[in-house]
Amino acid sequence: MPDPQRLDLSNFAEPVDVQPGREIRLKGSFRSADGATIDAATTTWPEGAPGGSSIDAGGLVDFKNGGFHVVSRDPVSHEVVAVATGEDAPACAVAGVSAPCLPLRTVHLARSRFMTREEFRESMKGAITIELVDPPPPVAVPAYVPVQNALTSPFAVGAYGVVALFAIVGLVLMTRRRRAQSPEGRMRTLAARVERKLRTCEAELRATLEPVVKKTLVAVSSGRLDAKSREGLRVADVLARVETRIDEMSVEKRAAEEQRAADELVLEMETALEAARETAAL
To answer: Domain locations in the chain?
Structure first.
């Protein structure tokens, strides 16, 4: 997939040419007529929605039935990374396209809004692009070039020392980047991000989830949990759902704080107006 392709809402499923184990990235979102922002994996409801502002863990794509597993999702940047599992993809067969594919949940989303699929599709504004995630580059080992009589010149020794230092630093950074992009690295990054977000949560929730998240980090680091295995993918999915719920709670908390601040300001202004009326009546 040299160039990003756009998710076509007129299709029931979008075929994707990707081999098992490779990842795709979906970026962007659509805005529906009811004000919701819908990306590939989440739906963000505005403050004026019937249930208030919230984030639902369900978007435009049914990844599991299309032969994909969600590795990470970000309801703020609307970026979703999914890996092709190579498992059965029943939704692709139903839609008459090759597997893996991205089955669209437009029928379900339209019915929940009492609309036809065509009405819902025409009401959507925005775009989502699909791109193949490049695998991490191989670690390049700097070639050793013998230098004749290098020890005879202090300047040459210093120059080659600087070059060697930069080569070592570059090798270390490249190795770290490669590890960070591996399934184990992404699992550690996700768990660390959840642990960091938990610090802003209520004490009860933090006390319940923080030990489990720390155990996950230890299990991945020690090799007891293989991030590429089926069980590792299950743990990653739960961590992603925990992160989504924390984000929802953060939005709800911010909305509640804004409402309290607005209530206090309105009360102060109404009190000031009443005092002004009483003064004018004297």
So the answer is: 5-135
